Amino acid sequence: MRAETVPLIAAPAWRYAVIAGLYAYQGLVAGFALTALPNHYAAMGATAAAVGAHVATVGLPWILQPLWGPVVDRFGGFAMGRRRFWVIAALTLSLLALARLLLVEDESVSGLSTVSAVFLVQSAFAALTDTATDGMIIDNVPAERLGTANAITRVGFVCGAALGTALFAWMLPAHGLHASAAALLGIGVFALLLPLIVRERAGDALLSLRSAPAHAHAASETFARLLRRLAASFAGGTTLILLAICFATDYVGALFRLPLTVELIQHRGWEAEALSRFQAVTALVTGTAGALLVGWWTDREGTSRALAILFALCAASHLGAAALLLAADPDWAAMTGPLALGLSTVMPALLFVALAPAVMQASLGPAAATRFALFMASLNMGDVAGSAMAGQVASAVGLPLVGLVAGSAFGLLALLSRLGVARRLGLS
User: Fold this and answer.
1) What's the rounded Cα separation, in Å, for the pair 358 and 273?
2) Taking the domains of the chain in order of start, what are their residue ranges?
3) In this predicted model, what pLDDT tens digit does every residue of 264-321 receive, in sequence order?
4) Domain 3-201+221-424 sits in CATH 2.40.340.10
5) If you write DSSP's letter for every residue of 156-192 in order, what string do you get?
6) What pLDDT is recorded for position 217?
C-alpha cells in the first residue's frame, strides 16, 4: 500500500472510527464487568458489600493509571507510531488476561473473588490502552475539535456498555460465564482491527518492534525530565483544584448509584436481567445523541458555561432521585426506583463530555499522556472510593440522604463554576 493511500488518524473519518471502536470495546467490557456481572451475582444473593468490593477491585488499576503515562511518553519511538504501538500491545495483553475467565471453575457467588482478580489484571492493561489512546487524541486532534472527539469517546463507550450490559445480562444466566467470556474475547479480536489498519503517520510500519528515528524526540524524553514537567504543573494549585473536581464528580455519583442497584434487585422486585436492560437502554438513548450534542455545544460555547449548567443538572437529577425514594408509594416502588437510578446516571455521563476537553487542554505538552492519565485516575479513584464505601454509607444513613448529599455536592460545584472558578482554572 502506497504511503499516500494509508488510512491515517489525521483524517477525521478514520480518527473518529478508531476512537469510537476502541472506546466501544472498553464500554463493552465495562458493561460486562461493572453492570451485568454485579447484577448477576446480586441476583444469586451477593451482598452490597461484596458487589461493591468487586467493582472497587475492577476499578483499582484505573487509580494507578498515571503510572502508565511516563511509560507511554518516555518509550514512544517505535516504527509503528508513538502511541499506536502501545494501543495494540496493551489491547492484546488485556485480551490474554480475559482468557483466564475460561478457566474459572466456580461460577457461584463464592467464585466472585476469582472473577474480580481476573478483571484486576485485565483492567491494568485496559488502563494502558486508554492512556495510549488518550495520548493519541491529544497529539492528533485540533484543540477546537476536542469537544467533538470526546463526545465520540462517550458515544463509543456508552454504546459498548449498553451492548455489553444487555448482551451479557442475557448470556450469563442463560449460558454461563465461560460462553460469555468467549463472546467478549471474540469481539475484542475485532476491536484490534482498526488500530492495526489506521496509522499515526504515513511512514509508520504496520507491525514492528523497531525504533524509528523520526520519533527520537519521544525516546530522548527522560523519566526525570517528565517528572519535573509534571511537578511544575502543580505550581499555583490549579492542577490540584481540577484533580479535586474530577475526584468529587465520580465519588458522589458512585456513592449513590451502586447501593441503589442492589436495593432495586433485592428489595424492590426487579430481576437482574430486566434492570440491566433498563440501564443499557437508558445509557444508550441519553449517552449517544446527548453526548454528541454536549460535545458540539462545548466546542461552540466553551467549557466554563457548559460545566456550570451540567453541574446544576447533576444536582437537580440527584436531588430529584432522592425525592422519589423519599416519597415513593409502596405500589409505585418498582417504577420510582429505576427512574431514580436513571436520573442519577445520565447527567454525570454527559458532564464528562464537557470536563474532558478542559482536562485535555490542561494536559498538552510532551508529557500529555502522563498528565491526562493523572486526571483520569482522579476520576477513577473517586468512582472506586465511592463504590467501596457505598454499601456501608447507605446502610448507615439511608439511600435518600445519600442522594441529597450527592445533589448538594453537585450544586456546590455548579455554584463555583458559575462564580468563575472554572475560568480561573483555564476552562473557558
Assistant:
1) 37
2) 3-201+221-424
3) 777 767 777 777 777 777 777 766 777 778 777 777 777 777 888 888 888 888 888 8
4) no
5) HHHHHHHHHHHHHHHHHHHHHHHHHHHHHHHHHHHHT
6) 47
